[in-house]
Amino acid sequence: MANCSCTGSCVSNNASKAVYACAGASNVGKYSYELAIALHQQGTHAMSCSAGVGADICGFTTGAKAENKVNLLLDGCPVGCLKAMFDHKGITNYDHVVITEMGIKKEGIFETDPELLKDLIKQIDKIGV
Questions:
Q1: From the centroid of its chain, how far is CA 18?
Q2: How far is CA 118 from CA 12, 23, 42, 56, 125, in A?
Q3: What is the spatial order of strands in the sheet that 94-98 belongs to?
């Protein structure tokens, strides 16, 4: 079992929905991460640690499986690494969004447009996940 008492603390809020971001090395991976942070900051979702779920440490997998928890997975592209990881872990209580299916073209860059991020937030709010 990993040592779960790292120094410092993580941000948290009281949102009933959790959000997990893709870690892809592209613009859509970065959009996924920035979108997760924005949803956390607006209080509609609580950002959690995708790597912690994948590594099955410190209660992250147990927390994601909780019956009263709704998880939002923000994959950058159709490869769907987050969805595949959650499926592999037997976690089924999630909504899944793919950034490229929201009108963003995947590119091998890290630049993002704040106006496009605002549009992604509006799209998430509109579909209600």
A1: 8
A2: 22, 20, 12, 32, 11
A3: 46-47, 17-21, 70-75, 94-98
What are the beta bridge partners of residue 94?
A: 71
Give Cβ neighbours of residue 87 (< 8 Å, ≥ 6 apart).
Answer: none
Name the band, by pLDDT with cuts 50, 70 and 90, for residue 10.
confident
Q: 46 — phi, psi (to 5°)?
A: -105, 120
Phi and psi at 20, nearest 5°, equal: -125, 135
Q: Provide, for the chain, the percentages of residues in helix, strand and coil under a 3-state DSSP scheme, each rounded to the nearest 5.
A: 40, 15, 45
- Give the span between the Cα atoms of 100 and 88, in whole angstroms: 23
Q: How far apart are CA 38 and CA 30, in angstroms?
A: 12
Contacts of 94 (CB under 8 A, 6+ apart): 70, 71, 72, 73, 83, 86
| Chain segment 46-102, per-residue pLDDT in tens | 999 999 999 999 899 999 999 888 999 999 999 999 999 999 999 999 999 999 999
Residues 125, 110: Cα–Cα separation, whole Å:
24
